[in-house]
Amino acid sequence: MLILGLVLIVLSAGYTTLLFAYNNSGGPYYTVTMFGHDVASLRPAGVFAAGILTALVFCLGVWMVVSTERRRRVARLQYREARQEADLAATERDKLAKQLRKTEEARQPIIPQQTTTVVPEQTTPKHTRA
Questions:
Q1: Does residue 116 form part of some domain?
Q2: With contact defined as beta carbons under 8 Å apart, do 65 and 6 qualify?
Q3: In-domain check, residue 63
Q4: Where is the composition biased (Basic and acidic residues) (predicted)?
Q5: In a domain, 71, yes or no
């Protein structure tokens, strides 16, 4: 939309400039001449209407440029806010992970329990042979 707005601004400004440069005759009818060709014959009211139309096209181009820039500014602001929110969430995550580590370390006993293994006694068979 930005490019289209700029194109409309340039075209309407160029059209107006060319009209002033090539047409400086007066009278009840104005013959619009561009690049050696007669485009149209207009009365003063028609010239006025063409000027209004050209100004509207120019204003449309300006509006397109301004609205595009406004939309970009809003998008940049939303992106910046999302990035800040993500940084805060990461900071909070790291803080909670550190607290969890401390809690887990506190739960572990200071002296590890000794494990004893029970070994069955070796018994000799008590068989008597007669």
A1: no
A2: yes
A3: yes
A4: 98-107
A5: yes
The two three-digit tokens of residue 70, written as one number: 């406004």
Residue 17: band (very low, low, confident or very high) from pLDDT cuts 50, 70, 90: confident
Number of domains in the chain: 1
57 closest CA partner among 121, 24, 11: 11
Question: Residue 86: which domain range?
Answer: 2-106
Q: Which residue has the tokens 């490019």?
A: 3
Buried b (16+ CB within 10 A) or exposed e, 9-30: beebeebbeebeebbeeeeeeb
Tokens linked to 92: 């909070």
pLDDT digits (tens, 9 = 90+) for 23-68: 666 666 667 666 666 767 777 777 778 888 888 888 888 899 999 9
- Tell me which DSSP letter residue 53 carries: H
Q: Token pair for residue 8?
A: 């409309």
Write the single-letter amino acid at 70.
Answer: R
Would residue 113 count as lying in a domain? no
Burial 87-121 (b: 16+ CB within 10 A, else e): eeeeeeeeeeeeeeeeeeeeeeeeeeeeeeeeeee
CB 42 within 8 A of CB 28: no
